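Protocol step 6 of 9: fold each sequence in the batch and record its structure tokens directly after the sequence line. For illustration, a two-sequence batch is reproduced in full.

Sequence one:
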Amino acid sequence: MTLVPGLTAHMSIMVEREDTALTMGSGDVPVLGTPRLLALAEAATVRAVQGHLDPGQTTVGTRVELDHLWACPVGTHVAISAELTKVDGTRLVFGFTANTKDALVSSGTIERAVVDRERFLNRLAR
């Protein structure tokens, strides 16, 4: 495992109707929904450590702190970045941001745990 602080990932989307709070049921306005924003931030954290885990390992989310600061209507381009900021055994802490060309949309932290995929799934089957 080669997990060290500083690993990053970047991705971008254009907000589509399917991404909105209205469509997702998390609100009644046609702007980027907070659950979709969180899913994008988590996807960036997964990408940041992809290729740095041992075979058979994966990460699972354990904690989220998210500030959703700016509304993004359909058609808005949003860039999401995540950086691994701390490695504490199997605990990983990431900082993330989401931005438009004009504004900070969101920032926060996501914690994930490194787990053995097979052991994790077998435990669920009990």
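Sequence two, same batch, same settings:
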Amino acid sequence: MNETTAHAHIQAGQRPQTGQQHPIRLYLLVWGMLFVLSAFSYMVDYLGIQGYLRWTLILLFMMLKAGLIVAVFMHMAWERLALVYAILLPPLLVLVFVALMVSEADYTIFTRLAFFGTAS
């Protein structure tokens, strides 16, 4: 917006428009996709899927929904790559470190049971 247009808006009592405006169709599409993913998540319980498949599907649908929310409603899809990395990379690294700690804990308990035996 050039200076004369902004000045004309201010004289007319309107605020000059700044920032991005995304089409309402995008938001409605994302809401629809969130609804469908939630329906799939509920279908996992309704169909009686058990075991690791159940938890894998539920976590997959949760991650897809979280990704949509972060990308569209938090406007991460339109941000600079450096800002996206600054916001999303630390939690991802924390999850990697938690996975490493779980693996180390399993190894530790296995080693203790193998060398010290079970406490009776």
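Proceed to step 7 once all outputs are recorded. Observation for sequence two: The chain has a mean pLDDT of 84.
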